[in-house]
Specification:
By secondary structure, the chain is an alpha/beta fold. It has 4 domains: about 80 residues; about 90 residues, 3-Layer(aba) Sandwich (D-Maltodextrin-Binding Protein, domain 2); about 70 residues, D-Maltodextrin-Binding Protein, domain 2, CATH 3.40.190.10; about 80 residues, ACT domain (Alpha-Beta Plaits, 2-Layer Sandwich), CATH 3.30.70.260. Helices cover about 40% and strands about 25% of the residues. The chain is built from 12 helices and 16 strands. The strands form 3 sheets. Strands 1, 2, 3, 4, 5, 11 and 16 form a 7-stranded mixed sheet that branches. The protein has a 5-stranded mixed sheet with strand order 8-7-9-6-10. β3 and β4 form a beta hairpin. It is globular and about 80 Å long. The chain starts with a helix and ends with a strand.
Length: about 350
């Protein structure tokens, strides 16, 4: 290809990019000045994209479309109503990454030291929304998050399923490492790899992967299991990538808010149940799901901490509380349970890469 042809193509690319910028300006002006337009945001992104085009026929990667429109919609929402997002910190944790995946870059993020503080920040309205982890495909439920739903009126607004890839961060040689820092969940997700490659290293649990990277940056012959965002924050070399034991390792995060979301057509509902204290009560409580064709996708029990041997049951099911089948199921559940609490109905999340 001649230099003249290359210059012509570069000019065409510049022309198209200028058009993109002009269209974004027009789009933001529209969302800024039409009062009746509902605030945009990440909610309902899937249905919005489906309404625009047949994505299966496009050569543009679906992941790129989701990222582009997530950022555009989030930026439009932030221009109309600035948002402050609480998340389980410190910065550069996987929860921080998940929050950025969902809300985009154009919002204010407020790191919280504990899951409980995330709930408190949203409940007291110092933050508009919160993001907390709830389940990992390798290590199971994050029980502290589940326990927090017992005494809160907050609702689950959305879920974020993020593929989790762990890295070994260190300044020296891998074979010289004596101590490995990380969060307990991460150590569990890399257990087999650590046993195989660093059997003599002392494993030390810390509060977050960011804390692990911080300690590693200050100590010789130490390593950290963390993500690449933490590596960049502390200027640590990545010695090994993707060291999680299972390639499909995914963590589910919840977006907390103060109101229920409207149906999207691809929803799930989370419930908290307390069954009556009698023989067969749990069995009877589960029967309505099958009777009305409602699919259970998650069930976890937790001690109630009110009376010995009393348990709360956390359940996820397919559908929205406004769906007829779900409404009928809930009506029957109340006949067999002391408590039926709807924690939220929200769009089913797709798995996102970091």
């Amino acid at each position: 290809m001649s230099k003249k042809e290359i210059n012509k193509q570069e000019q065409e690319l510049q022309r198209l990019d200028r058009q993109l910028i002009e269209l974004l300006e027009r789009r933001f002006a529209l969302t800024d000045h039409i009062a009746e337009l509902p605030p945009e945001g990440p909610e309902g992104l899937r249905s919005w994209l489906d309404s625009l085009t047949d994505r299966e026929r496009l050569t543009v990667p679906d992941s790129l479309l989701r990222t582009l429109f997530r950022e555009v919609r989030a930026a439009a929402a932030a221009r109309r109503q600035p948002r402050r997002i609480a998340y389980l910190g410190p910065p550069a944790t996987f929860t921080h990454q998940a929050a950025r995946l969902y809300f985009g870059a154009d919002v204010e993020y407020a790191a919280q030291a504990t899951i409980g503080e995330v709930f408190t920040a949203v409940s007291r309205q110092s933050c508009h929304f919160g993001v907390v982890p709830v389940e990992n495909s390798t290590e199971g439920a994050v029980t502290h998050t589940l326990d927090m739903f017992v005494d809160t009126d907050l609702k689950i607004r959305a879920e974020i399923n993020m593929a989790i890839h762990h890295c070994l961060l260190c300044r020296g040689e891998r074979d010289d490492l004596q101590t490995i820092y990380s969060h307990p969940q991460v150590l569990g997700q890399c257990r087999a790899w650590l046993r195989r490659h660093l059997p003599k290293a002392h494993l030390v649990e810390v509060s977050s992967t960011t804390e692990a990277a911080a300690r590693c940056s200050r100590e010789l012959r130490s390593g950290a299991l963390a993500g690449e965002l933490a590596a960049r924050q502390y200027n640590l070399p990545v010695a090994e990538r993707n060291i999680e034991d299972f390639s499909g390792n995914t963590t589910r995060f919840l977006v907390l808010g103060r109101e229920l979301t409207k149906p999207s057509g691809e929803d799930k509902t989370s419930l908290l149940l307390v069954v009556r204290d009698r023989v067969g009560a749990l069995y009877d409580a589960l029967l309505p799901f099958g009777r009305h064709g409602v699919n259970l996708t998650f069930i976890e029990s937790r001690p109630s901490k009110r009376r010995n041997w009393e348990y709360y049951f956390f359940i996820d099911l397919g559908g929205h509380v406004e769906d007829e089948a779900v409404r009928r199921t809930l009506d029957e559940l109340r006949e067999h349970c002391e408590l039926v609490k709807v924690l939220g109905s929200y769009p089913r999340g797709e798995t996102e890469e970091q």
